[in-house]
Amino acid sequence: QVQLVESGGRLVQAGVSLTLSCAASGRSFSSYHMGWFRQGIGMEREFVATISWSGVDTHYANGVKGRFTISRDNAKGTVYLQMNNLKPEDTAVYYCAAADASRWPSSAVLNRPIEYDSWGQGTQVTVSS
Predict the structure, then answer these.
(1) Is the pLDDT of residue 81 over 90?
(2) How many Å apart are CA 92 and CA 114, to the nearest integer?
(3) What is the per-residue pLDDT for 27?
(4) How far, in Å, CA of 96 to CA of 63, rounded?
(5) For a surface tag, which of 35, 61, 111, 112 has the fewest beta carbons within 10 Å of its beta carbon?
(6) CB–CB of 108/114 below 8 Å?
């Protein structure tokens, strides 16, 4: 399995940009499609974005489309989430997750937590108005 560690979360004001990183170790990073999810207080974990193992295919939740960008650097074993024009409703703990690429085609929209095999511990993003 792969181990994941998120970083970059912090308190910011609405309208600014923030980039989260997720560093992977263990099994080959390019063996996984990667995703970002978030969970607000008292809320269920929700899908944010996913990227295929090659980086070619990406998918976004409707609420972040056009503001967030997911990317990856397989040489560095890292996936990123660039978040622009942050809103108070983006406040949540953000988790990265890895899905075994041998189980899913690159075009799959992996937007359910059950589809992922490994999770990071999360990083808190708080957006003040």
Answers:
(1) yes
(2) 20
(3) 81
(4) 18
(5) 112
(6) no
